[in-house]
């Protein structure tokens, strides 16, 4: 069977409400109108609600969707599972809540033809609806990751809308150190360092990265603790720096 042009990886953890509101239907309707072939891999992160059942019910009547059931390991492990299972020429991961609508992929795909290997969405131009505290945290996080990791030229590492050439995605996601080691977790969790490690590794491996402004709407999916979450994000940055000093990201 010919490989699809685009693979869309969607992690899902306790997304019963969004699924019942028809988010997956919107994804299908958009892709069904496109001239290229596609697949959608919905990866269930060990949800404790009806997420798994609802996804299975959906894919029974909607071709092109696949269901992957993971133990609860957090968003990073869930995305990694989906990306490594993807078969498309280009691989995009996108949040199920569609804070960035899937149609925004139209802004990313043309950059691959211009020689870029990784094309990421950016919310920096307008973070519609985001609380002031979240915006302040984002600015501080951006300063620290640039200072410590040297990720100059990337203003928004955290937008959950990133696309890769298939071979590039495999090379990056198989070499993750901080978030590449799968382990079970409890409850929801913030994995701020995951996106940073992905982009840091992409840069270390010499891949060309393009950041593109995309439409984004604030959706509160979990309660953020500005102290503990910021501290965890900072620790992740330092651990990535330490791993780099140890040569763990070298070819």
UniProtKB/TrEMBL annotation:
Its domain of life reads Bacteria
Gene Ontology molecular function: any one: transferase activity
Domain named Glycosyltransferase 2-like is located at 7-170
For this chain's UniProt record, which GO biological process terms are given? protein N-linked glycosylation
Q: Which Pfam families match?
A: Glycos_transf_2
Q: Which InterPro entries match?
A: Glyco_trans_2-like, Nucleotide-diphossugar_trans
Which stretches are annotated as coiled coil? Answer: none
Which key words tag this protein in UniProt?
Transferase
Put simply, this protein is called Glycosyl transferase family 2
Q: Which organism is it from?
A: Candidatus Gottesmanbacteria bacterium GW2011_GWB1_44_11c
